[in-house]
Specification:
567 residues, alpha/beta, Cytochrome Bc1 Complex, Chain D, domain 2, Cobalt-precorrin-4 Transmethylase, domain 1, Methyltransferase, Cobalt-precorrin-4 Transmethylase, Domain 2, five-stranded parallel sheet, five-stranded mixed sheet, elongated
Length: 567
Amino acid sequence: MPGPDPSPSAARTGLRSLRTVVLAVGGGAALFLLATGLHHLGTPSHPSKPADAKPTAPISFTPPPDDRMPDNETGASIRRGQAIFMNTGANAREFVGNRLACANCHLDAGRKADAAPFWAAWVNYPKYRSKNKQINTLEDRMKGCFSYSMNAQDSSSGGPPPPGHDVYRDLQTYAHWLATGAPTGAKLAGTGYPKLKKTALGYDIGRGSVVYATHCVICHGADGQGQQDISGRTVFPPLWGAQSYNWGAGMAQINNAAGFVRANMPLGRGYSLTEQQAWDVAAFIDSHERPKDPRQKGTVEENAKAHHGGDTYYGKRIDGRLIGVGTGPGDPELLTLKAVRALQEADVVAHFAKRNGNGNARAIVEGRLKPGVVELPLHYPVTTEIDKDHADYKAQILAFYEDSAAKVAAHLEEGRTVAVLSEGDPLFYGSYMHLHVRLAHRFPTEVVPGVTAMSGCWSLTGEPIVQGDDVLTVLPGTMSEFDLTRRLADTDAAVIMKVGRNLPKIRRALAFAGRLECALYVERGTMANGASMRLTDKADDAAPYFSIILVAGWAARPGVQASGVVL
């Protein structure tokens, strides 16, 4: 869709169509963030009400339609102001340092109530603002919008329009015309953004990321950079990064963004999100990096103390990174180069272990950690003393994973990189996955794959496991004997993990399925104290937890008898 005609002679019908290109959430020219303590407004010239006067309900106001713009010099200025308002980057290009426009935050061409409508600006200014602790004219207010919301410092001019510039004149003329017929001395409905009370849960970036993925991605993209049409005009604005509003903008305050989202987003379906969802998604959006606050003269910490109280992530580190690191089956030489690099980057290394121990994964990476790294052992509260299906076991292990996730999250929230060690591959029967599902939606996350225990074991034995159309089934030895037997009878090849004290049951299942003769037993595969043999040659049923049974496929390969035993 073509952009608005900036010329004074723009057709009324064309200008009317501008309002249909309503731009979405996200910062932008948050011209009149009346929710930041700047509501309950009236102009200084209005007489005060008697002390005993009863409060009156806010009055609704509707601005005039476009076809009532006059056909004279004033009308030409109104049209220029509307064109600037709708497509600021094109029509005031030298003063805009990002891809935002006034219409991104003041919806429906500045008409919509509860979206800081532009007509309210004319009614409410001049006024005192706590942000700069002085009386501001409407021009002053717009200068702030260019500086903070449209990041004028990165524009070709290096700043906002100078005092008295035609951009201000035309925008004010447009605001004045939108306010035609607005009552004075009265409280008008919807002049800012709704002011939301904090919920009992507060706000949470993780929950917000889910809301964003569900309701916002379609317009603003997974990367938050919005969308442009073929002419380069912003259709949906970027919500973070270099092309969005800077840290000084009112929309960088989570409470302001939450009010805007609640009333107006998703676009055209305002008030469809709950207040909790609005708070959470606003927190998620405002947790991302964006351009520098132009007021900053010293350090970020000094600027935060001077200008950034309340609900904001300015000056706070939340860029922690979670890495699930596969340590392989035991041999330190099977660590991947990527795993070693991840360990060197980590500020914190977490590892699962039995009580009073460090665990196999930690032993594998010995000598690979950087000096001064923080170690975070996560000790299992229960082991094999309680059956895995017992309610007590389930309750304790669930609480353990929740507590472990909270311990890791505490470091991530402080901006640290946390590597969580996992034997074999992190997402293959690994304890790491219990942290992954609790944290990956909240923090930047990477998973470094590792050599699996089963591939390490069949490589150790030199036993080809599957080929062609063979089906490989991976079975936990903790399954019932009936299920083990059934699955073994219905597959070409099998790997049985988590053997340990389950070995007698596994023997019986293999025998019933007719697979005992071809089964190989491997314990501590690839480790220095590892061993392998035919299961029929193992005289006892003692087996460590880290042992595996291999049942090879490829029954027709050379050198194999009908029984499946390799000659």
